[in-house]
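Continuing from the previous page...

OK, I double-checked the sequence for histidine kinase against my notes and this is the correct one:
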Amino acid sequence: MAIIMSFILLAYRSFIRRIIKEKNAQYEAEVQYQKKLVLENIRAQEEERKRIAVMIHDDIGNRLNILSLWLNNLDTKGDELIKKNINTQMSSLIDSARSISHSLYPVNLESVGLVLYIEELIANLAGRINISLNVSPKFQKKEIFAEVQLYRIIQEFTTNVLKHSEATRVWIYIKDHSTHLAVVISDNGKSFEYEEVKKGMGIKNIESRIKSMNAAHKWKNVLGQGSRLIIKIPYNNEFSDQISISG
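Thanks. Re-ran it with the corrected sequence; updated structure tokens here:
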């Protein structure tokens, strides 16, 4: 009887372990499916943004430039004031078209690369905040989707800094490692309590883009001393849930 009971108990335990294993496998499959849906959704959004941005940049922007050149050659019979006003409005429209295009999608990033595009962002913000960029000499061009997401993250981080942190400096570090790309963005502002702002659009936009790359990240904030965002992007698009982030 004891042998029979022991056998039944062992069989029951084996059955329970199998059920738990199957449940875990189902859960993992569901998690991976949800990640895939999120990634596909973000990629679709980026493609639509790119389509609209290119249309504004290449079509509307070029048409405005041609119209501006035509107006410059137009004989206004000495009425320079009219000509000046038209040129001013055209220049404003051209700048607006470029701004809208750039905000939708970094159209020229594919041709100039991530580093030069970040340097352009830094130059544009030079009058408002001091930003330093440190890139590993070994840095290699990444897949365009990842580069766009990284640029957007840096852009969102600096926008939040300018709006809320009262910082005077921002540091950006980009370094290639053997298994992953490490990106660290930090500032010397007043920082924030993560739990209080994690539902805000700025943080949610940053973290959704990080998730779209299946990357790991960590916030290191010290009130009154600044914020730091550490991101590790795997080259094989896979990271263990137990990945550690230090620094």
